[in-house]
Design goal:
disordered N terminus, DUF481, 1 helix, about 60% strand, 2 domains, DUF481 domain-containing protein, twelve-stranded antiparallel beta barrel, single chain, signal
Length: about 350
């Protein structure tokens, strides 16, 4: 009897092993099978195999095993297939939701409904893959920067300096809100030697992808340049002339009403022409950014009176959204009161957080 039980138990064990082995082999095979890859064929006959991670501004980004992330121009693609579904935003605001990307003969093929003939689109109509909600007209995208620069010096002269900077942007498909603040407080041997600040609020409404009009409201003060308060308000028109990350150029020109209150000089108000110029470049690579910012106010009542604030610098990322920047600031005021130099020059290294 015991021998019979033993034989039955042994037979049952072999049967279970026989049943489970194919499944185990299948799981092992699945584990060793390479992950599905996307494939792109180019007009020059080259083939790129990897994972398509982004499509934006006419460029497909592909993560490859042999070269990391590479950029492929849409206009060079003949065929493309992807394994994962994606949402595509087209130039005519058509949204193609959750389907694998298929390109044949340099045409995007859409076949997402059974029984409906497939449709094709020129590749230059593809704007973005997996757009964010704000890019689909849903709410705003909030970005910004807060940074500080501090100097503490002890010795023959005790010096304390604190500069802080805030930038915040809310962008939708149609408009944009901007808030900026820049301030400096310096002390030497316990005595205040510099105290100034600038606040600016702007609203932009986009007439096209690159052209917009806006309203500017700003206020600033500089105790040691005799300026109690300068504020201006007025409209402007702006344009993004170049948007390639290698070189961007944005200009704004407008007119404004300016009011200036001084500690000792005579107060004044006037009509002014104002401008803003920004250039950036990622030429140095590594996610670093060269930048040039200039803001100008030209007194149209006294044309020799002009205020120009210029910043030139290099910013580069650190970790967890932190960034560092080295910059030079020039503040020029041809109408500076007697005893105050027309030009201020500042060198600073700041650390901040960008989101």
């Amino acid at each position: 009897m015991p021998m019979t039980v033993f034989v039955r138990t042994l037979a049952l064990s072999f049967a279970l092993v026989a049943l489970l082995a194919p499944g185990a082999r299948a799981e092992e095979a699945a584990a060793t099978e390479p992950a599905a890859s996307d494939e792109i064929r180019l007009k020059n006959g080259s083939r790129v195999i990897g994972k398509v991670t982004d499509i934006r501004d006419g460029v497909v980004t592909v993560e490859t095993d042999f070269a990391g992330a590479i950029a492929v121009s849409l206009e060079q693609i003949v065929t493309m297939t992807t394994s994962d579904p994606a949402t595509l935003l087209l130039a005519d605001d058509t949204v193609i939701k959750e389907q694998g990307i298929e390109v044949r003969n340099s045409q995007l093929i859409v076949d997402d409904e059974p029984g409906v003939p497939e449709q094709s689109y020129a590749l230059d109509q593809v704007l973005i893959a997996n757009p964010e909600p704000w890019e689909l007209g849903q709410g705003y995208n909030w970005t910004g920067l807060v940074s500080f620069a501090a100097v503490l010096e002890r010795g023959n002269t005790d010096t304390d300096e604190l500069d802080y900077k805030l930038e915040s942007y809310w962008r939708s498909v149609r408009d944009r809100y901007t808030l900026k603040m820049d301030a400096e407080i310096d002390e030497t041997n316990g005595e205040r030697s510099a105290e100034n600040w600038l606040m600016q609020g702007k609203y932009d409404y986009f007439l096209s992808e690159t052209t917009y009009w806006g309203v500017n409201l700003s206020a600033e003060a500089d105790e040691f340049r005799d300026l109690d308060l300068r504020y201006l308000i007025g409209p402007y028109i702006g344009r993004d002339f170049y948007t390639d990350p290698l070189f961007t150029l944005t200009t704004e020109v407008g007119a404004s009403y300016v009011n200036e209150d001084f500690s000792t000089a005579e107060d004044q108000d006037y009509t002014a022409a104002n401008w803003y110029l920004r250039m950036t470049s990622n030429y140095l690579g590594g996610d670093s950014l060269l930048y040039f910012d200039q803001r100008g106010i030209w007194n149209l009542d006294q044309t020799s009176d002009v205020v120009i604030d210029t910043a030139v610098g290099l910013s580069f990322p650190l970790l967890w959204g932190l960034e560092a920047a080295a910059e030079i600031l020039w503040e020029y005021d041809s109408g500076a009161v007697e005893g105050v130099e027309e030009m201020d020059e500042t060198y600073r290294l700041r650390i901040g957080y960008r989101w």
